[in-house]
Specification:
The protein is built from 7 helices and no strands. It has a single domain, classed as N-utilizing Substance Protein B Homolog, Chain A, CATH 1.10.940.10. The relative contact order is 0.13. By secondary structure, the protein is mainly alpha-helical. The longest helix has 19 residues. It is globular and about 40 Å long.
Amino acid sequence: MRIRSKAREIALCALYNTEVSKQDYRDILRNYFENYSRKNEAKDFSFMLVEGVIKNCAYLNSIIKKYVKNWEIERMAIIDRNILRLASFELMFVDDIPPKVSINEAVELAKRFGDIDSPRFVNGILDKIYKSEYTK
């Protein structure tokens, strides 16, 4: 697995655990990297993603809500909403990643961690966000 792909996976797990356990994301990430030192090359990117999502969560949620029909973001599967937040953050704030890469990586995370409908759902929402928000 490529370094940035692994970093996204780690960031998603940290966001999920932060939301479920209410632990501080820094503690979750530190614990992960202390116990799995061979992943240290992904550390900086993981921290940047998680911190970016958490600091911009209200904004990211407002963007996602614009394109989700008949769904409240709070009622989405925790994994799906965090994948959407992560990829939306990349689309809006990380200039060195092509949008198609962010979307494809999010779909791959949805395939690995979501349910059977997650990849299509994530792809559809991110495609709308990309076409409407990113290209402004």
